[in-house]
Specification:
The protein is mainly alpha-helical and 89 residues long. It is built from four helices and no strands.
Length: 89
């Protein structure tokens, strides 16, 4: 059962990151800093959720390939936000 719970929690994190990434792309397309800020908030929520999942499931979560991929996507999304900000100063 904990495997299903872990998968479900990681899936929720993944979806949060995907939504934030979509918001980043839209913000970049529209040049919309407000939308970028919303995306950043979404990313912060995803990061907190990911940390909580890691604390709850420990190494089992850390060793999960989907968890690792979601961490990488989160990092990539943060970089996209920084690039966008740096290009709009």
């Amino acid at each position: 059962m904990s495997g299903q719970n872990q998968h479900h929690e990681i899936e929720k994190c993944t979806n949060q990151v995907k939504r934030a990434y979509q918001m980043i792309v839209q913000a970049k397309t529209n040049g919309d800093m407000d939308q970028l800020m919303q995306a950043q908030q979404q990313l912060l929520q995803a990061e907190e959720h990911l940390k909580a999942t890691q604390q709850r499931f420990g190494n089992e979560a850390l060793n999960n390939p989907q968890f690792q991929q979601t961490e990488e996507q989160l990092h990539d999304a943060r970089q996209e936000i920084e690039l966008f900000r740096n290009n709009h100063r």
